């Protein structure tokens, strides 16, 4: 383990809720809850104001509504969050080639590998500058932890929240960890926590005191050994780049073009099974199923479908791949087929996204897009998801505050405006249409192209 605090952990503060507050002036300083609003919805993120009512991530939405009945309840806008995440990740990659995203708003950075920091002073400066840059580019705050290992850097950023920076100096780790609850350590969930508690172990120091043999006896060899090392603040896990782009896929090229449609279908099923075996082998599941088809004339098509939640079920992947194949013309022959799964889930927050997005898919059919989108299906009744942006021919840009009974209530305001006024329209008002989100910082959209109020942030899948 290194002896300088040059591993950085960034965690944006209440990310989804903060984005919504930045884009909606009337919600600043108010309780905002983002998540699935359907009957089985869960909270993805609550603003700090909502946390004072006891509303936290992963809580059932019904419980949140009981605790904070007057909060603003919004469905997530993943396209917007993703575009802001990309701005943040780009700033991290200026610090080091070793950036390991854990979710849209959280990542490790190895500052030493990037030559950005080599001791405590330079690490502190890099962390402070990063926080200022994030604020300038996105208008949002993020908290930074700096330590000599990933485990401690993450603990430090937790202590820094909100809007702070904490350095854990090498040599002080064990004294700091000792009194903390066992759940602080990575890999200790509720079940392991209970098991340790029944053995009389509540704090990290008590793990260290129990000794490695006792830990192995309680938790098995691999887990016991790893946890004992963590309790002694030994964490050698390196920062690994490009975790976010992971996908699992398999493909086959055929010597002779396949013309038989039934045979093409069977090949796709076989590839789907192979892909799932590989996915399971890596202990992963994923939400987006991708089919790749190269035709006789070398034209290559990809089609994808995003499921309600991550899966590693071969039947589900086979069915999705078959549906995607239905939309591809293979007359003339096929020379290559591939099946892949992306949108991989190997950390908790992604599961929350999936659940929230699943509820969103109920309300907004465009979330379940197949790609490329050729034509948006005609929707008999127009949907106005709470929190989504709209434009009115007469009143300009605003967002949906609520809808129902054939009416939609819109608040007309933009990130740079004063809190705006509310107006109610008929849900089929011809002057009202869905709009793309505006940049949170004037001129802050990618590329720095236009001036204040320039075009919308490029966002996929919104509308
Ligand atoms: Mg966060």
Automatic annotation (TrEMBL):
Main location: cytoplasm
UniProtKB keywords: Cytoplasm, DNA damage, DNA repair, DNA replication, DNA-binding, DNA-directed DNA polymerase, Magnesium, Metal-binding, Mutator protein, Nucleotidyltransferase, Transferase
PROSITE patterns from the UniProt entry: UMUC
Residues annotated as catalytic: 106
Entry's cofactor comment: Binds 2 magnesium ions per subunit.
Site residues by UniProt (Substrate discrimination): 16
Cofactor(s), by name: Mg(2+)
InterPro entries: DNA/RNA_pol_sf, DNA_pol_Y-fam_lit_finger_sf, DNA_pol_Y-fam_little_finger, DNA_polymerase-Y, DNApol_IV, Rev_trsase/Diguanyl_cyclase, UmuC
Reactions catalysed: DNA(n) + a 2'-deoxyribonucleoside 5'-triphosphate = DNA(n+1) + diphosphate
Ranges where the record places region Disordered: 413-463
Segments forming domain UmuC: 7-189
Protein name: DNA polymerase IV
Organism: Streptomyces shenzhenensis
Lineage of producing organism: Bacteria, Bacillati, Actinomycetota, Actinomycetes, Kitasatosporales
């Amino acid at each position: 383990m290194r002896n300088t605090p040059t591993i950085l952990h960034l965690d944006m503060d209440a990310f989804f809720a903060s984005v919504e507050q930045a884009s909606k002036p009337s919600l600043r300083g108010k309780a905002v809850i983002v998540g699935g609003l359907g009957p089985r919805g869960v909270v993805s993120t609550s603003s700090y104001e909502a946390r004072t009512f006891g509303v936290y991530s992963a809580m059932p939405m019904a419980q949140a509504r009981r605790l904070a009945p007057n909060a603003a309840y919004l469905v997530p806008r993943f396209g917007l969050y993703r575009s802001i995440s990309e701005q943040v990740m780009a700033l991290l990659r200026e610090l080091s080639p070793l950036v390991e995203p854990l979710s849209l708003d959280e990542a490790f950075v190895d500052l030493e590998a990037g030559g950005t920091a080599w001791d405590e002073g330079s690490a502190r400066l890099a962390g402070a500058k990063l926080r200022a840059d994030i604020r300038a580019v996105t208008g949002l705050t993020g908290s930074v932890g700096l330590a000599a290992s990933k485990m401690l850097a993450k603990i430090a950023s937790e202590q820094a929240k909100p809007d702070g920076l904490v350095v854990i100096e090498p040599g002080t780790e064990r004294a700091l960890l000792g009194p903390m609850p066992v759940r602080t350590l990575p890999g200790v969930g509720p079940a392991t926590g209970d098991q340790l508690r029944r053995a009389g172990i509540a704090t990290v120091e008590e793990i260290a005191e129990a000794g490695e043999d006792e830990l192995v006896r309680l938790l098995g060899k691999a887990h016991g050994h790893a946890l004992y090392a963590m309790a002694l603040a030994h964490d050698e896990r390196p920062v690994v780049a490009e975790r976010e782009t992971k996908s699992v896929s398999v493909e086959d090229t055929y010597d002779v073009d396949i013309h038989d449609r039934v045979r093409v279908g069977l090949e796709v099923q076989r590839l789907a099974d192979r892909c799932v075996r590989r996915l399971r082998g890596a202990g992963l599941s994923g939400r987006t199923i991708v089919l790749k088809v190269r035709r006789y004339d070398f034209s290559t098509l990809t089609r994808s479908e995003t499921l309600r939640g991550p899966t590693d079920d071969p039947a589900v992947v086979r069915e999705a791949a078959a549906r995607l194949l239905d939309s591809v013309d293979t007359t003339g022959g096929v020379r290559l087929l591939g099946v892949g799964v992306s949108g991989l889930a190997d950390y908790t927050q992604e599961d929350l996204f999936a659940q929230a997005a699943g509820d969103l898919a109920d309300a907004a059919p465009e979330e379940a897009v197949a790609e490329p989108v050729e034509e948006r299906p005609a929707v008999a009744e127009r949907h106005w998801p709470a929190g989504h942006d709209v434009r009115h021919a007469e009143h300009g840009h605003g967002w949906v505050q609520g809808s129902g009974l054939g009416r939609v209530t819109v608040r007309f305001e933009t990130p740079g405006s004063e809190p705006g006024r509310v107006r109610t329209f008929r849900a089929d008002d011809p002057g009202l249409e869905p709009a793309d989100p505006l940049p949170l910082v004037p001129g802050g959209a990618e590329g720095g192209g236009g001036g204040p109020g320039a075009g919308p942030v490029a966002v996929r899948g919104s509308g």
